[in-house]
Amino acid sequence: MLRRITLRDFVIVPALELDLQTGFTALTGETGAGKSILIDALQLALGHRGDAGVVREGAARAEIGAEFDTPPGLLSWLAESGFQNEDDGDLGLLLRRTLDAQGKSRAWINGSPATIGQLREAGERLVDIHGQHAWQSLTRPDAVRALLDGYAGVDAAPLAAAWSGWRTAQEHLADARTRQGDLERERERLQWQISELAKLAPGADEWPELEAEHRRLSHAQTILEAVQLALAAISEDEASAEQRSAQAIAALEGVVEHDASLRDPLEVLRSAQAQLQDAAHTLTAAQRHGELEPERLQALDERIAAWMSLARRFRRQATELPALLADWRDELSRLDAATDLAALERALATARAAFDAAAHEVSAQRKAAAPRLGKAVTAAMQQLGMAGGRFEVALERLAEPQRFGLEAAEFRVAGHAGSTPRALAKVASGGELSRIALAIAVTTSELGETGTLIFDEVDAGIGGSVADAVGQLMRRLGRDRQVLAVTHLPQVAAAADRHCVVSKQARGAGTVSDVQPVAGDAREQEIARMLGGTAAGETSLAHARALLDTAASVPVAPASPAPAPRSGNERKRQRA
Question: 492 near 471, Cβ under 8 Å?
Answer without folding.
Answer: yes
